Amino acid sequence: MFGSAIVGKCLPIFGHRNVLLFGIFALSTSNIIFGMLHFIDNYICFTVFCFGVKIFDAFGKSMIMITSFSLIMN
Known about the structure:
single chain; 86% helix; transmembrane; membrane; 3 helices
């Protein structure tokens, strides 16, 4: 929700294509990292990294969503 507002403000500055590509990169990278988190043995470290990766994942999803809505409307 908050990421969408930030992406909406940054979209005219960086351009549709760049934001969409970075969103795809962020989403795919966060999914790969989230899949490898089971190698962390410490419970607290695992929980902190899970939240961090999911926040990064949410920003990637909001970049893709907002950019695709903007491109469809144009």
